[in-house]
C-alpha cells in the first residue's frame, strides 16, 4: 500500500461523491485527513445522503485518522477558520484536494447558452470556482510554510483535451479550474508544490446511483453504468499522485484518472482498469 504516513490532507466537499472517495483512500494510505462540507449529523436520512460526520466514521472504521470541519466554502470567513484550525492543530498541510462544487444545484442540461438559466453562474462559479480559489488563498501560505518535501494541490474538474462539454456554464467553469491550476503551478514551482487538475470518468456518485434507482451493491445490473467507475478510483489516483516523488514533472498539466491508473498500475474496487471516459464527438 502507498504510504502517506505523516502527511496532513484537506479534502473540501468531502461528504459524498468524489470527495468521500478521495478522503477514504487518503486515510487508508495513512494520511491524517480533514474533510469539510456543510452537512453534519448521523441520522438515518443524513447517513443516506452522506455527511462529513458519516464519512469521518468511515475513515475511523478503516483504521484512518482525521477530523470533520463544518464549512460553507462560499463564506470566506468559514474557509479561513477551517485553515486556521488545521494550522493550529497540525502546523502543516501537505495535500489539498479542492473538490467543493455547487454546480449540480440545477440539472446540467444540454441546451444552447441563451436557453440556460443564468443562475448556473452563481452555482458553478460562486459555489465552485471561487470557493476553490479562496480555499487556495488561505491554504497556500500554510502549505508554503511547511518547507519540507513540497506538497500537492489537486483540483477535481472535468477535462478531455479541451473538447466542449455541452453545457456552456459547466464547460466554462471546469476549464477555469484547469487554468487556475496552471497559474498556481507556475507560482508555486519554486516551493515544489505540484498543482494538478484531475478529471475522473463516469463516476457512480450517490446522485448518479439515485437517479438510476440503484446502489453500489447493484450497479452492475444497470446497463448505463457498465463503463462507470467508483468514487474510490479517483481517490486512488490522488494517493498515487501525492506519493509520486516525480510529480513536479506533470505540475499544471491536466490528468485523467483512467490514464493515471495505467501509469501507476492501480485498479478500481472491482479489479478493473477503467479506461478514460471520452466526451462524445
Automatic annotation (TrEMBL):
<protein>
    <submittedName>
        <fullName>Oxidoreductase</fullName>
    </submittedName>
</protein>
<dbReference type="Pfam" id="PF00106">
    <property type="entry name" value="adh_short"/>
</dbReference>
<dbReference type="InterPro" id="IPR036291">
    <property type="entry name" value="NAD(P)-bd_dom_sf"/>
</dbReference>
<dbReference type="InterPro" id="IPR002347">
    <property type="entry name" value="SDR_fam"/>
</dbReference>
